[in-house]
């Protein structure tokens, strides 16, 4: 937790009571979302998938001409939420840039490859791992193992077909790679067609505003933040958010 930064009340959708959150993180994440920058920094599950899908749909409604940037550092997760995220990325009108930082394994790599072709990037020391699905979306009894195996084969066929379409590799290559855990460096992932670029340095091939630029270039007055519905009910919300914003600018400068 950041020392010296006040907390602000934040009401989670569906909950009646507000919870106190770190004001620095609240303003920063809120600002990043307004700049159409999203993060997948955990295992893929229904909760994070629903959040990211909701944000992508919201940003599409807000402006369907601006691209969305999805940063990925995920060890994998559940197949069904990952496929749902992939389908949403193909459904929304804006191009979704996917950026691998750290590790994109299992369903993390599936989301990574689902970005707009020519707009998928990996950091130079990032790793990508692909393999076949190893778990189901329901708990099966002993007598249901055969049916579960059939469902897993269907899921494997779905994942394989997507990798073939998005990477341009032959079916036999993708099928062989998915037989086991295959780890790839950023350059190997580029050669495999999972990403299109490797970010060695900012050469202009992949342009995106830096965090400092996001803070310095903001033109929205602080009153827009203090009027956020999430802060209603707090008598000192204006002064608190102002101090948080000033503190954020000081840190970034």
From TrEMBL:
It comes from the Eukaryota. Keywords: Hydrolase, Plastid, Protease, Serine protease. It is found in: Plastid. GO terms for cellular component: endopeptidase Clp complex; plastid. Pfam families: CLP_protease. It is an enzyme of class 3 (hydrolase). The active site is at 106, 131. GO terms for biological process: protein quality control for misfolded or incompletely synthesized proteins. InterPro entries: ClpP, ClpP/crotonase-like_dom_sf, ClpP/TepA, ClpP_His_AS, ClpP_Ser_AS, NA-bd_OB-fold. Its EC number is 3.4.21.92. Its main location: plastid. GO terms for molecular function: ATP-dependent peptidase activity; ATPase binding; serine-type endopeptidase activity. HAMAP family: ClpP (MF_00444). PANTHER family: ATP-DEPENDENT CLP PROTEASE PROTEOLYTIC SUBUNIT, CHLOROPLASTIC ATP-DEPENDENT CLP PROTEASE PROTEOLYTIC SUBUNIT 1. Belongs to the peptidase S14 family. Cleaves peptides in various proteins in a process that requires ATP hydrolysis. Has a chymotrypsin-like activity. Plays a major role in the degradation of misfolded proteins. This is ATP-dependent Clp protease proteolytic subunit.
């Amino acid at each position: 937790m950041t020392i010296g930064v006040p907390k602000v009340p934040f009401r989670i959708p569906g909950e009646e009571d507000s919870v106190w959150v770190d004001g620095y993180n609240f303003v920063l994440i809120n600002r990043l979302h307004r700049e159409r920058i999203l993060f997948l920094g955990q295992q893929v599950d229904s909760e994070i998938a629903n959040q990211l899908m909701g944000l992508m749909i919201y940003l599409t409604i807000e402006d369907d001409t601006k691209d969305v940037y999805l940063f990925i550092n995920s060890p994998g997760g559940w197949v069904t939420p990952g496929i749902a995220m992939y389908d949403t990325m193909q459904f929304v009108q804006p191009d979704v840039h996917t950026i691998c930082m750290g590790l994109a394994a299992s369903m993390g790599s599936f989301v990574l490859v689902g970005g707009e072709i020519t707009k998928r990037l990996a950091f130079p020391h990032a790793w990508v791992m692909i393999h076949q699905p190893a778990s189901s979306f329901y708990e099966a009894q002993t007598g249901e193992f055969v049916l579960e195996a059939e469902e897993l084969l269907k899921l494997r066929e779905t994942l394989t077909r997507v990798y073939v379409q998005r990477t341009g590799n032959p079916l036999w290559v993708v099928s062989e790679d998915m037989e086991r855990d295959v780890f790839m460096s950023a350059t190997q992932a580029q050669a495999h067609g999972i990403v299109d670029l490797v970010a060695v340095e900012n050469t202009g091939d992949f342009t995106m505003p830096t965090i400092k630029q996001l803070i310095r270039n903001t033109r929205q007055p602080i009153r827009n933040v203090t009027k956020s519905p999430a802060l209603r009910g707090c008598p000192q919300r204006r002064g608190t958010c102002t101090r948080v914003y000033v503190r954020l600018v000081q840190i970034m400068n």
